[in-house]
Design goal:
Length: 115
């Protein structure tokens, strides 16, 4: 299972820049079978899923936690978030930069990589 903290905070795994999104707005739990659970972390402006029942005037329903599919859009405050984009961001092959083997001093005396 993978857990993804979503929000504006520096400690979030998936960072969003939006004034309606809290620092630690929501958490997405991705289970090994691919199912996802979105959990609101007591955010100021709420987490919403599409209301397929048609009972909501806005078309969105506020949740505390909800199972969602990877092709769904959720609202964090007023920010539309694609679950698929969050999942895809985890699957990117990010390789750390290799450490340079040699260092030199620049004209100001600072140590910098030689290459």
């Amino acid at each position: 299972m993978k857990r993804v903290l979503i929000g504006t905070g520096a400690n979030c795994d998936y960072k969003i820049v939006d004034k309606t999104v809290s620092r630690q707005h929501a958490e997405l739990m991705i289970k090994d079978d691919g199912t996802c659970l979105i959990i609101d972390r007591v955010s100021m402006n709420g987490t919403f899923v599409c209301d397929h029942s048609g009972q909501s005037r806005s078309g969105w329903r506020r949740i505390t936690q909800e199972t969602v599919s990877t092709n769904e859009i959720v609202l964090l405050g007023t920010y539309k978030l694609s679950i698929a984009q969050v999942v895809a961001s985890l699957q990117k092959d990010v390789k750390p930069k290799p450490k340079p083997e040699k260092f030199i001093r620049d004209e100001n005396g600072h140590i910098i990589p030689a290459n």
